Automatic annotation (TrEMBL):
Alphabetized InterPro entries for the sequence: EamA_dom, EmrE-like, WAT1-related
Biased composition range(s): Basic and acidic residues: 341-353
Top-level division of the source organism's lineage: Eukaryota
Keywords: Membrane, Transmembrane, Transmembrane helix
GO-annotated molecular function: transmembrane transporter activity
TM regions (residue ranges): 18-35, 47-67, 79-102, 108-128, 140-160, 185-205, 217-238, 253-274, 281-301, 307-327
Region of interest: Disordered: 341-368
Cellular component GO terms, alphabetical: membrane
Parts forming coiled coils: none
Protein name: WAT1-related protein
UniProt membrane topology term: Multi-pass membrane protein
Intracellular or extracellular location(s): Membrane
Length: 368
């Protein structure tokens, strides 16, 4: 019984990052719809981003202050500057472009384009040697194939429509349709692509920052407050009327609270933890899950049109995702071997006096 329990715990620990990232994508899925509803209600996306991260900052602050009081490194000027850039890439610049594009496109298009982040992040990570890639082994080839197949699936969902899947009934919820012109759709597409590029850089930069500041709760809090300040400065310039900043007890308030607590708070903390455990590529390669969930919910709940191209692209994306996941399963074994080799080399080159002391201490510890 104890052996079985230990085996289950071992399996849970092994797949804990996978489970957390899956739940994170569910959280992102609901974000697309509640945000679109809020924007259709009249909420300004830039005001929304500012309020959202203020809420997230205050929610995460007590957890960061009390739980990481002894482990949190001291802030330096260089580290503060790094957090400022990290906040700009993750909040101030990227999210303002991203949610501004939602006003000109659609949740399904936005969720599809986000999947390119995984491919961009993988390429950058390989160049910067943050990602283990050995083309002489099957797992290394699987990573390349998985990335290319996932990207092909994304392009299929984005560029190929095909026949419309027959609707099964009336939509459960109705949102005011997006009446953006082709010009606005082009503007939205450009903003989406630009945000995907800066988002990829943000994921990569997280891996570097976490090495110098390994306190995920505190880093999440800092990014929320600094990002909110950056967004506020930009928003005040373009939206300086009091009416623009006023929200009522309606969908605008609920979308802000949900995005602040769940997405900018809990999910960002989960992503930072998974980035430290598995690397930035692992975090981004789960993005296709939210794309599929958005398409399914948009079809069944909102009554949006579903095309054969979207279904075909989703299947291709899933195949690529599983290939990439299988390829990355060997990374942990490689890191473990590298760590063991480093420890062995350290022991071999250890000072003789230190070796005698360590051997004596070990012997004393083993005595009854």
């Amino acid at each position: 019984m104890a052996v079985q329990a230990g085996s289950l715990m071992g399996t849970y620990r092994r797949f804990k990052p996978h489970l957390l990232m899956g739940l994170a994508q569910v959280g992102y899925t609901f974000l697309y719809f509640i945000t679109e509803a809020s924007f259709n209600h009249g909420m300004n996306p830039h005001v929304y981003i500012t309020y959202r991260h203020i809420v997230a900052g205050f929610v995460m602050l007590p957890f960061a202050y009390f739980l990481e009081s002894k482990t949190r490194p001291k802030l330096t000027v260089a580290l503060l500057l790094e957090i400022f850039v990290l906040s700009l890439l993750g909040v101030g610049l990227t999210l303002n472009m991203y949610f501004a594009s939602l006003r000109y496109t659609s949740p399904t298009f936005l969720a599809s384009m986000v999947n390119t982040i995984a491919s961009l992040t993988f390429v950058i990570a390989v160049i910067l040697r943050l990602e283990v890639l050995d083309l002489r082994k099957r797992r290394g080839i699987a990573k390349i194939l998985g990335t290319l197949i996932s990207l092909a699936g994304v392009m299929t969902m984005t560029l190929y429509k095909g026949p419309i899947v027959k609707s099964l009934g009336h939509p459960l919820i109705h949102f005011r349709g997006n009446t953006a012109s082709n010009e606005n759709w082009l503007k939205g597409s450009i903003l989406t692509v630009a945000s995907c590029i800066t988002w990829s850089i943000w994921y990569i930069m997280q891996a570097y920052t976490l090495k110098r500041y390994p306190a995920q709760l505190s880093l999440t809090t800092w990014m929320n407050f600094v990002g909110a300040a950056q967004s506020a400065v930009f928003t005040v310039i373009i939206k300086h009327r009091k009416a623009d900043w006023t929200i009522g007890f309606n969908i605008d308030l609920w979308s802000t609270i949900y995005a602040g607590v769940v997405v900018s708070g809990v999910i960002i903390f989960i992503q930072l933890w998974c980035t430290e455990q598995k690397g930035p590529v692992f975090v981004t390669m789960f993005n296709p899950l939210s794309t599929i969930l958005v398409a399914v919910l948009a079809y069944f709940v909102l009554g949006e049109k579903l095309y054969v191209g979207s279904i075909l692209g989703a299947v291709i994306v899933i195949v690529g995702l599983y290939l990439l996941l299988w390829g990355k399963e060997g990374d942990q074994d490689i890191r473990t071997k590298m760590t063991e080799q480093t420890e062995t080399n350290y022991e071999e080159h250890e000072d003789p006096k230190t070796q005698i002391f360590s051997s004596t201490a070990k012997h004393m510890k083993e005595e009854p």
